[in-house]
Write a structure and sequence with these properties.
Length: 399
Amino acid sequence: MPPPRTRGTALRHRLAELRGPDVPAKALDARALAALAANPGCKRRAILDGAGVNKAVLADALGSPSAFGQSQFAFMRGNAFEARVKADGGAELLRLVHEKLDPGAEPPTRALVPELAAIGPEGRAARTALALREASEAVAWTLLDHPMLALDVAGSPAFLEPDAVVVHPDGSWTVVEIKSFPMLDGSADPAKVGAAARQSAVYVLALEEVAARLEPAPRVRHRVLLVCPKDFSNLPTASAVDVRRQRAVTGRQLARLTRIEDIADTLPEGTCFAPDRPPAELTAAVESVPAAYAPECLAACELAFHCRDRSRTSGAVTTLGRSLRAELGDLTTVDEVLSAARGESGDPDDPAVAALRRAAALRAEALRDAAERRGQVPGSAPELRLVEPLESVTGGGAR
């Protein structure tokens, strides 16, 4: 008789059914995990990422294609720069690690570069863990080029591939992140540096899981090395980035994620996100999972345009931003907000309702004064409405 199916095997089978039996899984990367951690309340993204659904293909099938992603030119430029940084056995990369993070150690005149090839992501992750253990015991500089790390995310393993991990002679580990955006006079775009720091924090979390299984546990450094082109050249320069805050936030948010099997258990029987399904059936499958849309999603999720359209249709206040949603308390829709502001509903003792009515009164007074100065008698104040803030700053546009 076949062996009984374990809970882990059953979950993988269930996620494969959700993805589609003939659809290959899209692996989670650190960028996606950082975006998921930034919005832990979105069960839709959690189940889609956990099942390995390609959200860009899904968005196209839903009729809401997204421009989110990296251009082919930027991808090729990044690969060319990374190859230059790692040339000659990573000599320049190790020099930068020594200079920026460990100047008191012996200079890396020679370094170990272990072979990390193995079959499948599980095999590569096991080979990486073995190489890290051996490197920690070797008391020498070691460069791990594109190691594979495993991180448990809501009960499902995610396999991550940092650009490099360096093992110092004292046995400690450092994450190296290589980016193609420039450092001008020693500084770079703060938004891009912040995104790189959040991405690196995910790698630090995964390395800490590997280190926790060793005895004694090696130290995972919380200062990562960010390597970028210097000014407008193709020469590498680097800066040490402390990711302790990002690591704490990301770890806390990932821990808050609802376990993927719990979300899967709530879905209707036969739910499938395969892009070849009829549009109505596919839309119903996506809508069966609650989403938590906010304007920030436009810069981080391929399904953002679809979720934004649904959020606008339902009149959800979160369409206007998380900060505004937090200020409005129990008022969750635009209709509820406008009704409270006009005095038609809402508890007058509620601070949010009181503030809305005060704002409406001030607006009506200002319109009345303006009309009197123009010599007009206003018949009625213009209809009170909320205006959605411009989303172009977060990557969205008029659609």
